[in-house]
Amino acid sequence: MINWIPGTYCSELLTVSLFRPGMGEFKVHRVRFFNYIPSGIRCVAYNNQSNRLAVSRTDGTVEIYNLSANYFQEKFFPGHESRSTEALCWAEGQRLFSAGLNGEIIEYDLQALNIKYAVDAFGGPIWSMTASPSGSQLLVGCEDGSVKLFQITPEKIEFERNFDRQKSRILSLSWHPSGTHIAAGSIDYISVFDVKSGSAIHKMMVDRQYMGVSKRKCIVWGVAFLSDGTVISVDSAGKVQFWDSATGTLAKSHLIANADVQSIAVAEQEDSFVVGTAEGTVFHFQLVPVASSSTEKQWVRTKPFQHHTHDVRTVAHSPTALISGGTDTHLVIRPLMEKVEVKNYDAALRKITFPHRRLISCSKKRQLLLFQFAHHLELWRLGSTVATGKNGDTLPLSKNAEHLLHLKTKGPENIICSCISPCGSWIACSTASRFFLYRLTYQHDNLSLKRVSKMPAFLRSAVQILFSEDSAKLFVASNQGSLHVGQLLEGRFRHLHTFQPQSGTVEAMCLLAVSPDGDWLAASGTSAGVHVYSVKHLKVFEYSIPGKQYTEWSRTVQKQGFHHLWLQRDTPITHISFHPKRPMHILLHDAYMFCIIDKSLPLPNDKTLLYNPLPPKSESDVVRRRTAHAFKISKIYKPLLFMDLLDEGTLVAVERPLDDIIAQLPPPIKKKKFGT
Amino acid sequence: MATLEEEIALSTVVLGAGPDGLLGVEPTDKADQFLVTDSGRTVVHYKVSDQKPLGSWSVKQGQVITCPAVCSFQTGEYIVVHDNKVLRIWNNEDVNLDKVFKATLSAEVYRIHSIQGTEPVVLFKEGAVRGLEALLEEPQQKIEAVISDEEVIKWTKFFMVSKHPVLIFITEKQQQHGNYFAYVQMFNPCTLSKYTLLLGEEEKTVIKNFTASVDRKFICLMSLSSDGCIYESLIPVYPSDGEKNQKVVRSLLLKTVVSGSAQKSVALTILDQNHVAVLGPPLPASKECLSIWNIKFQTLQTSKELPQGTSGQLWYYGETLFMLHGKYLTVIPYKCEASSLAGALGKLKHSQDPGTHTIPHFVNWETSQGCEPGSQNSEQSKRILRRRKTEVSLQPEVPASTQLLLNIKKDSEKHIEIELRKFLALKQTPDFHTVVGDIVAGLLGRCKEEPSFYPRNCLMQLIQTHMLSYSLCPGLLEIALEKTDVQMLQLCLQQFPDIPESVTCTCLKIFLSIDDDSLREIDINMESVSDYNDTAQDENMEEQTGILQNGFSSEEDNCNSCDPELNQKPQDATQATTSCPVIPQRAALLNAILHSAYSEIFLLPYLKDIPAQHVTLFLQYLYFLYLKCSKNATMTLPGIHPPTLSQIMDWICLLLDANFTVVVMMPEAKRLLMNLYKFVKSQISVYSELNKIEVSFRELQKLNQEKHSRGLYSIEVLHLF
Known about the structure:
The structure holds two protein chains of two kinds.
Chain A: E1 25-31, E2 41-47, E3 52-57, E4 62-66, E5 72-77, E6 85-91, E7 95-100, E8 104-109, E9 114-120, E10 126-131, E11 137-142, E12 147-152, E13 157-162, E14 172-175, E15 181-185, E16 189-194, E17 200-205, E18 209-210, E19 213-214, E20 220-225, E21 230-235, E22 239-244, E23 249-255, E24 261-266, E25 272-277, E26 282-289, E27 297-305, E28 312-317, E29 321-326, E30 331-335, E31 350-352, E32 360-363, E33 368-372, E34 376-381, E35 394-395, E36 402-408, E37 415-420, E38 426-431, E39 435-443, E40 446-451, E41 462-467, E42 473-478, E43 483-489, E44 492-499, E45 509-514, E46 520-525, E47 530-534, E48 539-541, H1 552-560, H2 564-567, E49 575-578, E50 585-589, E51 594-598, H3 621-627, E52 631-634, E53 640-647, E54 650-655, H4 658-664
Parallel strand pairs in A: 1-54
Antiparallel strand pairs in A: 2-3, 3-4, 4-5, 6-7, 7-8, 8-9, 10-11, 11-12, 12-13, 14-15, 15-16, 16-17, 18-19, 20-21, 21-22, 22-23, 24-25, 25-26, 26-27, 28-29, 29-30, 30-31, 32-33, 33-34, 34-36, 37-38, 38-39, 39-40, 41-42, 42-43, 43-44, 45-46, 46-47, 47-48, 49-50, 50-51, 51-52, 53-54
Chain B: E1 2-4, E2 8-10, E3 24-27, E4 33-37, E5 42-47, E6 52-58, E7 65-71, E8 78-82, E9 86-90, E10 101-104, E11 109-113, E12 121-124, E13 129-131, H1 132-137, E14 151-161, E15 164-173, E16 180-186, E17 191-198, E18 207-214, E19 218-225, E20 230-236, E21 245-254, E22 267-272, E23 275-280, E24 289-294, E25 299-305, E26 315-317, E27 320-325, E28 328-336, H2 341-344, H3 382-387, H4 389-394, H5 400-410, H6 413-425, H7 432-449, H8 456-463, H9 474-482, H10 486-495, H11 501-513, H12 516-521, H13 532-550, H14 558-561, H15 564-568, H16 570-578, H17 584-595, H18 600-607, H19 612-630, H20 645-663, H21 667-708, E29 713-719
Parallel strand pairs in B: 17-21
Antiparallel strand pairs in B: 1-28, 2-28, 3-4, 4-5, 5-6, 7-8, 8-9, 9-10, 11-12, 12-13, 14-15, 15-16, 16-17, 18-19, 19-20, 20-21, 22-23, 23-24, 24-25, 26-27, 27-28
């Protein structure tokens, strides 16, 4: 997160403000009407090389998480109504492919954050895809029962050939690690293909019986081919089965669920694997010796995890963690304790529900909130009160919050980003192919909206949009790495300048910040460098201005170090802002807390209490002054999606309670508590 | 399936095998080593696996060995007779047979027999039998004639029948071929029974070879006649009183296994209860063959051609067949694995051949191999003490466990018990586990051989070491079942984690069938049974008040209306349910069953064998337990380690599953079934009510949450400190 500090130069300012009463006192607009429902997770794909995780959701969105950087969601590709991804995989090292029910294979451009190309496989909807162990080939399983092999070329993928066509859809695929054979899960059977000839050498029928009752069909949701020739299958009858691919016989069967087992992922060492069921349970299987000091090993179901309420549609196995996701929209990363060396917060369970990008923007002047949904925007006006109260009081509202506007986009594409200007008169938003700018006019209680026409043709798609503090300038980061600057005047948009990316890079800028005077613009791309542009002089600077150095405070922090509890937080900071009137205050928040850092106060050391939720009672002023430290933390609001200062003494906090999300999901498979 | 393995040829260079073949092949105290005596002057000690002789001894020129050398299993010494009357005893270290112990007897010796577990016995040509020790004490003692002058001993064999030695020999009247007599000699008390073998229709045939096996009551004598058929005669081991000259009929067992007109001699030996080995030409013109026949199914299992001819002699010791093939002594290992289901499941029954040396069953993987417990050598006979005192002092001290194992073989129960107590009090060595296993195996082995021997206290003590399991000593439960020792059974059920379902069920049958009076006398561990009857009255009261409190009486249960009989006697029903249907002792035993582990699939078929009365009784008891359980809020029974509710329920279900069709027909079980039905029904309704309550609670919770949640929007005051 980057942001501008108003008046960075006056670092020695105002010890006066320090002891002014009420400096830590706020009226908080607590907003829970942002009716945001994340889409369910459909696929996850783990990349061992870069320690990144690709996650696709049911609306077609693809997100990239950096597991090394505190599981930060660093990239995202917007969804599309007609593009439901059924399979996601990494190939050729860092290239990401997806395939879905529209029958297309898509490659993503991880630099420019757009779709590189889409290739129709001509086999009807694609249900499964997997990259060869060498990474040079892609295999897709289609609705029509065909298994198609594609060669990955540096620029594209090329169809190579079909394998023997099967009679029903191919729902799962797995390569043998040597690349010579593949296993394909279909309905009621598993086929083993010889890659060279493309012919099926075995067809292993899966028992339809389910608890003695013959179900109509048994869907093989997942297969995994191990190097010793074992094929592990998971199916809709709740079974995990081990097959011998050499003979085509069933070796072992585990009935683990009363419902479908929908996903499987095997560790690279093939000593453990993980399966996910429709009951929300994740089971860990490990290859353990039959007896201690015995060389004979067998697969044993070791640990069940119940972190989901709904179907676990997909699982992944990183060297140190089990990763699962499903209909309940949580991405759960469960570290394997035996693989974690240091028992710190890295060993803790992570549950990621909300996107780390910003879905909410705020007009401070008019006290408006703009909410971004997949296909529409909502504009709300905050209420007001005249009452005052003490800590914890809920004040009576003189005016309630008001839903002003519902702005629906046309077309199947999801909204990538949106922003409302600080003055509240402009709204900008963008999809993958269209850019919209609206002018809002207020007449008493009436609101009128007008789309600004005559936008320049190059403004087609934005990764990030930002208005200057005075709402006179619009900054648009396009996905080709360029930054467009436009002037807003009398309801019109005038293109001022375009900062071209440094030669050779096409890196998209996903974070933007502008200085309060509008002269400086900072942008950060996916590779974590920060570019600073002088809007007036149209030049590019790199980092600290004007002294080009870290501030004194920053150096002190570096010297003394942060409080250990602060460093142990496991959620990334999603927003930073500054107090417009009090430059010593930094406001930042993540999903579970927000914090105001008062730079004028001493930094906490490891002995002091970092988080103090209760007001100090009997302590004298002296004690209070002595124990006071720079980090003022509140954990009242969670999960916190957005928090900002509206004015000196007013905060706005947008929460999204998980219960509200769960209430809107389809009911989970009910498990009886009593009886059998 | 019977199989003959690759043959091993032992060189016979040192053997002077005459036209009649060898005098004999006899086992020694080492499993792999044998004494081979040729028809001349030489005895060779072979180690078969190494295919080489370990030693060879000859008598002086002019002397002739007349009886095959044997090895005394008690002393490890070798005994041979030359020139009919001169007995020689020597050891491995001795070089010259001339210089070894010599005893000249007063009568001619036919054979010396030596087998595991007893001293060697000497059979004289005139039918008298002497123990070696007794003979050596007075070598010149007078030997009486037992058989008539006309008779000649044709064949003889020595067995152990449940720890008692039994000698059988067959004689033939010299003048009249075809007249055979069998003599069975028992020791302590010395009895001799004579039987006349009736050959039946085949009067003209000559018996060419005999073999015999023995079970507890009968010696099964098989004879291979000159017509090529094998006949079987059963001779009782223990003589029946009365008749002096008893007759034994023989019956045809296998037809024409060898060519009837074979001029050469043929041989026969029993391999196990189902298999015999026959040596001889199967067809008149064919070469000689070694064939294995299954006598049960009358099938040829396997055969091996021996083209260089044999001497018509066949010996069989511990899975190895010996014969003279051409000039070589040929050894053919023979294996017959019973292709039983148990074998397929890896539970091959470990039956021990009484004739073989007891090797410890349990291998301790923690200590190194090779330290075999002191063999039988340590069992010193008086004579060897006399002769080799220096050697004794050189032998290492016998470990306590080995000593105990030896004691088990012969000592009295009382003595073993004292020794065992001493042993258990000792510090536990790393191989304690295996030693305990060996001890149990030893005790059980003796139990099998001596029906009167039942070291109950010892076994109980051993079980309580927690070192045993069913698979370690399957015989233990077998014996306890045989003796209906319910106390032991209870202990085993409590201690062993791996009792097969069939045995569990057999125990259950015994527990249900044993009568109350005898149960009362037995000291049974009652800790799982709290006094059921005492509390019955109080609980009855409680139940009454409970009904009033809830304002719900069982009369409202619509199930009652369908059973007028029950309605008429509600008092009776409560009576029946509140008193324990079995006495506490039986309850304790049944609880042990309830606690034991089982697999439904394997248990069900055995449960079907329980008589209906017993099923009803057990069901009544289970139902009673269930009632006791359900009177308690935690659904548990009082007492230490009581059966759990799920165990009770599972057994009720199992019993009903197995026996429903029987139980449903029984008038006395009707009320019980009705009660169970009622209970199941009420259980279902309770659960459905619980589910309803759960849903209502969830709704309440939702309402509660809504109340607590501050709505979608609020303005609050926040102070940061």
